[in-house]
Amino acid sequence: MATTSYPGLDLLATSVILVDADLRVAYANPAAENLFAFSLNNVAGQFVAQLFIDPAELIASLQDVLGQHWSYTGRDLTLARPGQANLHLNCLVTQIENSAARFLIEFRPIDQQLKLARERRQMDQQQANRELIRNLAHEIRNPLGGLRGSAQLLERELERPELREYTQVIIKEADRLQSLLDRLLTPHRPPQLATLNIHEVLERVRSLVLAEFPDGIRIERNYDASLPDLRGDKEQLIQSVLNVVRNAAQALNGSGDIELRSRAARQVTLAKQRYKLALELQVIDNGPGIPEELRERIFYPLVSGRDGGTGLGLTLSQTFVQHHHGTIECESEPGRTCFTIMLPLE
């Protein structure tokens, strides 16, 4: 079936389907194709009821609009395509006068709205955390330097060599705190952008982690070789992914499986901006999962689920990803933890 072009609708980030008076699909924009995982060429001319497993509520809304001549807004509508998970959507049906279409159906994923709100909260919280940590680090740095210097002077005055063990403890701990402060302040360097291949980043991370955990850790590659290059800071991206993969290896206690997965994602919103094409990078492990009480705070600085952890690795990862206008999220349950990094490819 030949389809009519609607350039204005093609550019919308909202998913739109046009249906004729016989309830057949006349048009679907790229956002709808991406949301429902179909091609307009394949569904044009089909009854809209054939697209979904249980379309009764949607069909009833179309008939109501046709009979009553008003718009219909449905909230928390559940639709599913064969072989796919349920989609929770807000739906707006509007009657239009068009030679090819009678209804305009607009779908907005509820999950996506919640995700955007969560991203905004995370960005605001991370900005506040970074400012707090920077101010705290600057306040600590000066007395820390004085503490270390005093310990060095005291060591020179000690006549009994065995007492120098105690001054060495002070000096080493002061150096460790200084290193921690440097890591807190490092992320504020702007990225040095260059064209790079994300799989070179992943291979570098893979080799580093396998060298660190030579026995028991298996890292599977699941790459999309057709992905285009992106503009980014290679060192920052290596550090971002390395922190995530190293965390996964540590959660596995040195024995388990990690999957590195790369895919293209279309029509996505990252940091309040819409992109036609983005990179989806996932790090998946089969470990015990993140404790529920930490899942909402895992990217906060100084929050760690591991004894001896500094709680800075994932904070740095998030900061570097945000420098690239991307997002990082985590889903975790016992037996499967998945970190997803999204980066724009435009």
Report on the structure:
The chain has nine helices and twelve strands. The chain is of the alpha+beta class. The chain folds into two domains: 7-112, Beta-Lactamase (2-Layer Sandwich); 191-346, Heat Shock Protein 90 (2-Layer Sandwich), CATH 3.30.565. The strands form three sheets. Strands 2-1-5-4-3 form a five-stranded antiparallel β-sheet. A five-stranded mixed β-sheet has the order 7-9-10-12-11. The protein has a two-stranded antiparallel sheet with strand order 6-8. A hairpin with a 2-residue loop joins strand 11 (327-333) and strand 12 (336-344). The longest helix is centred in the middle third of the chain and has 48 residues, at 110-157.
Oligomeric nature of the chains: single chain
CATH architecture of the largest domain, by name, is 2-Layer Sandwich
Mean pLDDT: 81
Overall morphology:
elongated
Across the major sheet, the strand order is 2-1-5-4-3
Poorly predicted regions are none
Helical residue percent?
A: 40-55%
Provide the structure class.
alpha+beta
Q: Beta-strand percentage?
A: 25-35%
**Count the strands?**
12
Rg, alpha carbons: 27 Å
What is the CATH superfamily label of the largest domain?
A: Histidine kinase-like ATPase, C-terminal domain
Largest sheet: 5 strands, antiparallel
